[in-house]
Structure formats: structure tokens, C-alpha cells
Design goal:
The chain has an eight-stranded mixed β-sheet. Helix content is about 30%, strand content about 20%. Mean pLDDT is about 90; it is low at about 1-35. The protein has helices at about 1-10, 20-25, 50-65, 70-80, 125-135, 145-150, 165-175, 245-250, 250-260, 265-280, and strands at about 45-50, 100-105, 115-120, 140, 190-195, 200-205, 230, 235-240, 290-295, 300-305, 310-315, 315-320, 325. The two termini are about 20 Å apart. It binds N-hydroxy-L-asparagine. N-hydroxy-L-asparagine binds near residues 187 and 220. N-hydroxy-L-asparagine (SD4) binds near residues 182, 209, 220 and 243.
């Protein structure tokens, strides 16, 4: 919550934080890079929302010469461990039965990927997803099987509900109003994309999903192609927001394919949101944010409603970049 407030309240004109092209672009027009970029920017890491600590961690890994896969795993683990983030990892809000169920996926530059869905009692689903990728011939493990696999890999059992999320759940139960809505204020899923010094790309995405969801519900975040996609020839994309809509358009894969066809990351993210809005004419009650990077290290983002931003770390420093939106 406080992150969103910070985003809303922070002055867009804060010196050095936001570049002129971002400020001058209008809400729906494609934002073009101010100059033609010839040399690739690397290493670089970007993540959904203003996750300063997570991106700092990933940047440390990249700066020491670490690879993009380690960087994104290490980076998003910071949010999984942060109990004040109530939509990722430990401290994530539960489903309507009071169970915290986590979704995560990871993808490397060779196109290898791993995913866990509906995972309970394990604080770091992203690392379990990586183990699925590296230690099994499979890509997705679900529920009890994923949990059993995690124990076999040495992960420890933890109660993921915190005092805060338990209290909120008890409050919610009084009315039990089930809304499949992720609005501007109630989500903080982290999707992270990185390019290492060698120019290789990797990505990770992790979430507790929609608060008070129907038991068994899985969103876009652990679905390769929906919540995350990496193509080392082209770039990568990730999503946050109402997963059902992202799945319907295979959002992250779409954005990477649009970049393959020549669109900038910014243009591709805008097209991704527009595809979703075409299927949701006149619907304004949900939020989605896309984030993309291409092989040159150019980045872009776009969302349905104002409020989304992404944090970027590259050799020039770091900044929180506000995203333009479909609705103003
Ligand atoms: C989901 N996309 O489970 C996730 C939720 C999310 O910020 O992104 N929240 O649908």
C-alpha cells in the first residue's frame, strides 16, 4: 500500500529520476527512445513496481559478474522474504479458505524454464521453480507434488501466514465478499528481467496471486508465456495484475513476439495492453502492467490505469520509472 502511495505522491519532476521523453509523452502514444541506441546496455535489471531492495540485490549479482539467472532468482527472493509485501512469498494474502498458495516461474537464456503452482508452506517458490527446471525433466509442478519435491530438495516447511495477513483474513471472512479484482492498490507481484555482462537474458516472476481467490486458482505469474517469457535473441517480458486477462492473451509471449517483429519494448507493451482492452471494452475495474526489455537493453512498460512503475538498474544508475497508461 505504502508503495502505491509513494508512487502517487512522488513528484514526477524530481531531478534526475525521470527523463524528459517520459515526462513529455502522452498517455496513449508510443514513447520513443530519445536517441538511436547502437551499443547494448548491459548489465541491466528491471522489475515490476518500485522494488528497490530486490533490484539492488540483483544488481549486486550482475555487478560481480554473476549471470542473469542468478541475478533474477536472488533479486525476487528478497520480496519473497519480505513479509510486508502481502502479495509475494511469506506474508502473502491467503485464498478464501485461509491457505497461502504461491505461484512462481523462472526462465533462462537457453529457453529452459521451471514453474511451481499452488505451492504451500514454502517461502521461496522461485528457488523451487529453479530446481524444477534444473533437477527434473518437467516444467511445472503443482500443489502437494511441488511441496513434496521442495522438501526433497531441502526446503523447509514454514507457516506463510503472518499476524497481519491472518487478521486481514479474519476481517474479510466477516463479509466473504469474493471479488476477482486486482485494482490499483492491492497488488505487488514481482516480475524481474535481467541481461548480464555476456548479454544473456533471464527472467523470474513470483506471487501469492489474487487475495482470497477460490482455492486452487492459479494466475498468470507461473505460466510461461503469460506472466513471463524470455527469448535470448529478442528480449523478455513480464506482467503484473489480473492474471486471467494476461493468460487470455498469452501476454508476455505476445510482447516478445511483437519485439521480434520490430516493435520497441514500449510499443510492444502498449500493444499488449490494447489487446486486453479490446476484449474488455468499457471495463475499467482492473489493473494490468507489462514490463519488457529487448536485447539492446531498451526497456518499456504500459498499464491499464496510472500507478504502475518499474525499477531499473543499469551502469548509469537506478531509477523508478513511472509507466504510461491506457486510461488517464
Ligand atoms: C495473478 N498476476 O495471480 C497475479 C497477481 C498480480 O500483482 O500480479 N498481483 O493474477
Amino acid at each position: 500500500m505504502h508503495r502505491r502511495k509513494f508512487l502517487k505522491n512522488s513528484s514526477l519532476t524530481t531531478a534526475g529520476l525521470i527523463s524528459a521523453p517520459v515526462l513529455s509523452s502522452c498517455k496513449t502514444e508510443p514513447k520513443m527512445e530519445s536517441a538511436v541506441q547502437t551499443e547494448a546496455i548491459k548489465p541491466i535489471v528491471v522489475c515490476t513496481w518500485d522494488f528497490h531492495n530486490a533490484s539492488t540485490k540483483a544488481w549486486e549479482v550482475l555487478q560481480k559478474g554473476g549471470n542473469a539467472l542468478d541475478a533474477v532468482e536472488e533479486g525476487v527472493r528478497v520480496e519473497e522474504a519480505d513479509v510486508t509485501n502481502e502479495t509475494v512469498g511469506k506474508g502473502g494474502r491467503p485464498d478464501r479458505d485461509g491457505n497461502v498458495t504461491l505461484d512462481a516461474c523462472i526462465m533462462d537464456s537457453a529457453g529452459n524454464c521451471g514453474s511451481v503452482v499452488y505451492l504451500q508452506n514454502i517461502a521461496h517458490p522461485i528457488s523451487v521453480a529453479r530446481k524444477v527446471m534444473e533437477e527434473t525433466p518437467h516444467i511445472i509442478l503443482a500443489g502437494k507434488g511441488a511441496e513434496q519435491f521442495a522438501y526433497e530438495q531441502g526446503f523447509k516447511k514454514e507457516d506463510l501466514l503472518t499476524e497481519s495477513t491472518r487478521r486481514q483474513y479474519e476481517e474479510w471472512k466477516k463479509e466473504s465478499k469474493y471479488e476477482t479484482i486486482i485494482n490499483i492498490e492491492n497488488h505487488d507481484t514481482i516480475g524481474m528481467l535481467a541481461i548480464d555482462a555476456k548479454g544473456d537474458i533471464a527472467g523470474a516472476c513470483t506471487t501469492s496471486g489474487m487475495a482470497y481467490k477460490v482455492a486452487g486458482r492459479v494466475g498468470d505469474s507461473p505460466i510461461i508465456g503469460a506472466g513471463l517469457f524470455v527469448d535470448n535473441e529478442v528480449g523478455a517480458a513480464t506482467a503484473t495484475g489480473v492474471g486471467e486477462e494476461v493468460i487470455r492473451t498469452v501476454g508476455s509471449f505476445l510482447i516478445v513476439e511483437l519485439m521480434r517483429q520490430g516493435k520497441s519494448p514500449q510499443e510492444a507493451c502498449e500493444e499488449g495492453v490494447k489487446r486486453i482492452m479490446e476484449k474488455n471494452k468499457d471495463r475499467k475495474d482492473f489493473q494490468i502492467g507489462f514490463l519488457a526489455i529487448n536485447k539492446k537493453g531498451e526497456t518499456g512498460a504500459y498499464c491499464v490505469h496510472p500507478g504502475f512503475s518499474y525499477r531499473k538498474y543499469d551502469p548509469n544508475g537506478h531509477e523508478n520509472v513511472p509507466s504510461n497508461s491506457f486510461y488517464s
